[in-house]
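Weekly modeling sync, notes
Attendees: S.R. (lead), two postdocs, one rotation student

Agenda item 3: backlog of single-chain predictions. S.R. asked that every request posted to the team notebook include the full sequence so nobody has to chase files. The rotation student volunteered to paste the first one in as an example of the format we agreed on. Action items at the bottom.

Example entry:
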Amino acid sequence: FPITLQDAIRYASDNYPAIRAAQARVAAQESGVDLAHTSYLPRLDSSLQINRATRNNVAGLLLPGTTIPAISGPVSVETSSSRIWGSGAGVLLSWEAFDFGQRGASVDLARALVVRANAGADVARLDVAVKTADAFLRLAAAQETVRAARANMNRQQVFANAVAALVKNQLRPGAEDSRAQAELALARIQVIQVEQAE
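Predicted structure, as returned to the notebook:
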Protein backbone atom coordinates (compact mmCIF):
# COMPACT_ATOMS: atom_id res chain seq x y z
CA PHE A 1 0.00 0.00 0.00
CA PRO A 2 -0.61 2.36 -1.61
CA ILE A 3 -1.54 -0.01 -4.40
CA THR A 4 -2.37 0.84 -8.00
CA LEU A 5 -5.10 -0.72 -10.08
CA GLN A 6 -2.53 -2.62 -12.15
CA ASP A 7 -0.85 -3.97 -8.98
CA ALA A 8 -4.21 -5.11 -7.61
CA ILE A 9 -5.10 -6.92 -10.84
CA ARG A 10 -1.65 -8.53 -11.04
CA TYR A 11 -1.83 -9.67 -7.41
CA ALA A 12 -5.33 -11.12 -7.87
CA SER A 13 -4.29 -12.88 -11.10
CA ASP A 14 -1.31 -14.46 -9.35
CA ASN A 15 -3.13 -15.59 -6.22
CA TYR A 16 -6.82 -16.14 -6.91
CA PRO A 17 -7.78 -19.84 -6.42
CA ALA A 18 -10.01 -20.03 -9.52
CA ILE A 19 -7.05 -19.10 -11.73
CA ARG A 20 -4.85 -21.72 -10.08
CA ALA A 21 -7.58 -24.31 -10.57
CA ALA A 22 -7.89 -23.35 -14.25
CA GLN A 23 -4.12 -23.67 -14.68
CA ALA A 24 -4.25 -27.11 -13.04
CA ARG A 25 -6.97 -28.14 -15.52
CA VAL A 26 -4.73 -27.01 -18.38
CA ALA A 27 -1.85 -29.09 -17.00
CA ALA A 28 -4.15 -32.11 -16.63
CA GLN A 29 -5.35 -31.78 -20.23
CA GLU A 30 -1.76 -31.43 -21.47
CA SER A 31 -0.88 -34.70 -19.75
CA GLY A 32 -3.91 -36.19 -21.52
CA VAL A 33 -2.18 -35.43 -24.82
CA ASP A 34 0.86 -37.39 -23.62
CA LEU A 35 -1.42 -40.22 -22.58
CA ALA A 36 -3.11 -40.25 -25.99
CA HIS A 37 0.32 -40.52 -27.66
CA THR A 38 1.04 -43.71 -25.71
CA SER A 39 -1.60 -45.54 -27.75
CA TYR A 40 0.93 -45.59 -30.63
CA LEU A 41 3.35 -47.67 -28.54
CA PRO A 42 3.30 -51.47 -28.38
CA ARG A 43 1.81 -53.03 -25.29
CA LEU A 44 3.53 -55.65 -23.17
CA ASP A 45 1.51 -57.58 -20.59
CA SER A 46 2.86 -60.23 -18.28
CA SER A 47 1.56 -62.33 -15.43
CA LEU A 48 2.88 -64.90 -13.03
CA GLN A 49 0.75 -67.09 -10.82
CA ILE A 50 1.77 -69.50 -8.11
CA ASN A 51 -0.97 -71.19 -6.20
CA ARG A 52 -2.07 -74.23 -4.31
CA ALA A 53 -5.43 -75.77 -5.07
CA THR A 54 -7.31 -79.07 -5.05
CA ARG A 55 -6.94 -81.81 -7.67
CA ASN A 56 -10.57 -81.71 -8.81
CA ASN A 57 -11.13 -80.98 -12.52
CA VAL A 58 -7.74 -79.68 -13.76
CA ALA A 59 -4.75 -79.94 -11.47
CA GLY A 60 -4.08 -76.55 -9.97
CA LEU A 61 -5.87 -73.30 -10.49
CA LEU A 62 -5.30 -70.58 -13.06
CA LEU A 63 -6.99 -67.26 -12.56
CA PRO A 64 -8.23 -65.61 -15.74
CA GLY A 65 -6.11 -62.81 -17.16
CA THR A 66 -5.08 -61.18 -20.42
CA THR A 67 -1.98 -63.29 -20.99
CA ILE A 68 -3.06 -66.80 -20.01
CA PRO A 69 -6.43 -68.04 -21.18
CA ALA A 70 -8.68 -69.64 -18.58
CA ILE A 71 -8.69 -73.41 -18.90
CA SER A 72 -11.03 -76.09 -17.78
CA GLY A 73 -10.83 -79.78 -18.23
CA PRO A 74 -13.25 -82.67 -17.99
CA VAL A 75 -14.98 -83.38 -14.72
CA SER A 76 -13.02 -85.81 -12.57
CA VAL A 77 -14.49 -89.23 -11.92
CA GLU A 78 -13.99 -88.83 -8.23
CA THR A 79 -13.61 -85.78 -6.04
CA SER A 80 -10.46 -85.25 -4.09
CA SER A 81 -9.46 -82.80 -1.45
CA SER A 82 -5.75 -83.39 -1.85
CA ARG A 83 -3.79 -80.32 -2.79
CA ILE A 84 -1.31 -79.65 -5.51
CA TRP A 85 0.98 -76.73 -6.33
CA GLY A 86 0.47 -75.00 -9.63
CA SER A 87 2.05 -72.17 -11.52
CA GLY A 88 1.59 -70.28 -14.73
CA ALA A 89 3.46 -67.52 -16.48
CA GLY A 90 2.67 -65.60 -19.60
CA VAL A 91 3.87 -62.68 -21.70
CA LEU A 92 1.79 -60.98 -24.38
CA LEU A 93 3.17 -58.37 -26.76
CA SER A 94 0.55 -56.58 -28.83
CA TRP A 95 0.57 -53.64 -31.20
CA GLU A 96 -2.08 -52.31 -33.53
CA ALA A 97 -0.60 -51.65 -36.94
CA PHE A 98 -3.82 -50.18 -38.34
CA ASP A 99 -6.44 -48.35 -36.38
CA PHE A 100 -8.16 -46.43 -39.20
CA GLY A 101 -7.47 -43.07 -37.52
CA GLN A 102 -8.71 -43.86 -34.02
CA ARG A 103 -5.41 -43.05 -32.27
CA GLY A 104 -4.94 -39.86 -34.28
CA ALA A 105 -8.47 -38.80 -33.42
CA SER A 106 -7.75 -39.46 -29.74
CA VAL A 107 -4.66 -37.25 -29.90
CA ASP A 108 -6.60 -34.53 -31.74
CA LEU A 109 -9.34 -34.71 -29.12
CA ALA A 110 -6.79 -34.37 -26.33
CA ARG A 111 -5.27 -31.32 -28.05
CA ALA A 112 -8.73 -29.77 -28.47
CA LEU A 113 -9.35 -30.30 -24.75
CA VAL A 114 -6.09 -28.45 -24.03
CA VAL A 115 -7.26 -25.54 -26.20
CA ARG A 116 -10.59 -25.52 -24.35
CA ALA A 117 -8.85 -25.62 -20.96
CA ASN A 118 -6.60 -22.71 -22.03
CA ALA A 119 -9.67 -20.73 -23.08
CA GLY A 120 -11.27 -21.50 -19.71
CA ALA A 121 -8.13 -20.29 -17.94
CA ASP A 122 -8.20 -17.08 -19.99
CA VAL A 123 -11.85 -16.54 -19.08
CA ALA A 124 -11.04 -17.11 -15.39
CA ARG A 125 -8.18 -14.59 -15.59
CA LEU A 126 -10.41 -12.05 -17.30
CA ASP A 127 -13.22 -12.59 -14.80
CA VAL A 128 -10.86 -12.12 -11.86
CA ALA A 129 -9.30 -9.03 -13.46
CA VAL A 130 -12.72 -7.46 -14.08
CA LYS A 131 -13.95 -8.23 -10.57
CA THR A 132 -10.73 -6.89 -9.07
CA ALA A 133 -10.94 -3.68 -11.11
CA ASP A 134 -14.60 -3.29 -10.14
CA ALA A 135 -13.82 -3.75 -6.44
CA PHE A 136 -10.85 -1.38 -6.69
CA LEU A 137 -12.90 1.34 -8.37
CA ARG A 138 -15.83 0.87 -5.98
CA LEU A 139 -13.44 1.26 -3.06
CA ALA A 140 -11.90 4.38 -4.60
CA ALA A 141 -15.37 5.85 -5.14
CA ALA A 142 -16.40 4.95 -1.59
CA GLN A 143 -13.26 6.60 -0.18
CA GLU A 144 -13.95 9.76 -2.16
CA THR A 145 -17.56 9.72 -0.97
CA VAL A 146 -16.33 9.44 2.65
CA ARG A 147 -13.93 12.33 2.07
CA ALA A 148 -16.73 14.48 0.62
CA ALA A 149 -19.14 13.54 3.43
CA ARG A 150 -16.55 14.46 6.07
CA ALA A 151 -15.89 17.79 4.33
CA ASN A 152 -19.64 18.43 4.28
CA MET A 153 -19.86 17.57 7.99
CA ASN A 154 -16.98 19.94 8.79
CA ARG A 155 -18.68 22.69 6.76
CA GLN A 156 -21.95 22.06 8.62
CA GLN A 157 -20.06 22.20 11.93
CA VAL A 158 -18.56 25.60 11.04
CA PHE A 159 -21.98 26.83 9.92
CA ALA A 160 -23.66 25.51 13.10
CA ASN A 161 -21.01 27.24 15.27
CA ALA A 162 -21.54 30.54 13.42
CA VAL A 163 -25.33 30.31 13.74
CA ALA A 164 -25.01 29.37 17.43
CA ALA A 165 -22.88 32.50 18.04
CA LEU A 166 -25.42 34.69 16.24
CA VAL A 167 -28.33 33.15 18.19
CA LYS A 168 -26.43 33.57 21.48
CA ASN A 169 -25.96 37.27 20.71
CA GLN A 170 -29.64 37.48 19.75
CA LEU A 171 -28.85 38.47 16.20
CA ARG A 172 -30.76 35.48 14.79
CA PRO A 173 -33.85 33.63 15.96
CA GLY A 174 -33.39 30.36 17.90
CA ALA A 175 -35.11 28.37 15.15
CA GLU A 176 -32.07 28.89 12.91
CA ASP A 177 -29.82 27.25 15.52
CA SER A 178 -32.17 24.27 15.66
CA ARG A 179 -32.14 24.07 11.89
CA ALA A 180 -28.29 24.24 11.80
CA GLN A 181 -28.02 21.49 14.44
CA ALA A 182 -30.42 19.31 12.43
CA GLU A 183 -28.31 19.82 9.29
CA LEU A 184 -25.18 18.93 11.28
CA ALA A 185 -26.83 15.76 12.61
CA LEU A 186 -27.85 14.80 9.07
CA ALA A 187 -24.26 15.34 7.86
CA ARG A 188 -22.94 13.11 10.68
CA ILE A 189 -25.45 10.38 9.75
CA GLN A 190 -24.32 10.60 6.12
CA VAL A 191 -20.67 10.19 7.20
CA ILE A 192 -21.57 7.08 9.19
CA GLN A 193 -23.51 5.62 6.24
CA VAL A 194 -20.74 6.19 3.69
CA GLU A 195 -18.13 4.81 6.11
CA GLN A 196 -20.21 1.64 6.43
CA ALA A 197 -20.45 1.44 2.63
CA GLU A 198 -16.68 1.87 2.36
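Discussion: group reviewed the output briefly. Residues 102-168 form the longest helix (67 residues).
Action items: rotation student to repeat for the remaining queue; S.R. to check formatting next week.
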